[in-house]
Amino acid sequence: MKPPTDRELMLEAQRARLSAYAPYSHFFVGAALLAASGKVYLGCNIENAAYGPTNCAERTAFFKAVSEGEREFLAIAITGGREGESPAFCAPCGVCRQVMAEFCKGDFRVILGNAEDIKPYTLSRLLPVTFDKETL
Ligand code: THU
């Protein structure tokens, strides 16, 4: 099957964002992670009354995929914005960049923005100097 275009992956991220559970920040984030297998894993942020256990959309997508046996990834689309507003540019937090670095090389594609305005990055641009498995 043909891999999704950046715009198609972003549309999936926008769909994932609709499931966000964010009653504290009211900031809704969605992610769509493309595995090398061709499967797409969706993720949303999941908040918690204790705040600390909150999980970002990107990590939700990664952990779903890794828990189903995936280890190689090609791209992730991410979009965010306040509840009730249109999805917009939302850069991944540092913790999520570190999780990406665990499973992905520098050429892993990180697609930001929204379906109308796609801004493509690479992991090496977002996290140029890594602490990863090669370091240990
Ligand atoms: N959030 C994400 O889901 N991904 C990011 O990369 C940035 C932050 C979520 C966490 C929290 O639920 C809300 O956005 C506000 O920080």
Topology:
Layout: H1 6-17, E1 27-35, E2 40-44, H2 57-67, E3 73-82, H3 94-103, E4 109-114, E5 117-122, H4 123-126
Parallel strand pairs: 3-4
Antiparallel strand pairs: 1-2, 1-3, 4-5
This protein binds tetrahydrodeoxyuridine (THU).
How would you characterize the overall build of this protein?
With 136 residues, this protein is α+β, with helices and mostly antiparallel strands. The protein contains 4 helices and 5 strands. Strands 2-1-3-4-5 form a 5-stranded mixed beta sheet. Strand 1 (27-35) and strand 2 form a beta hairpin. The longest helix is centred in the N-terminal third of the chain and has 12 residues, at 6-17. The model has no long low-confidence stretch (mean pLDDT 98). The chain binds tetrahydrodeoxyuridine. The site of tetrahydrodeoxyuridine has 13 residues, from strand 1 and helix 2. Tetrahydrodeoxyuridine binds next to strand 1 and helix 2.
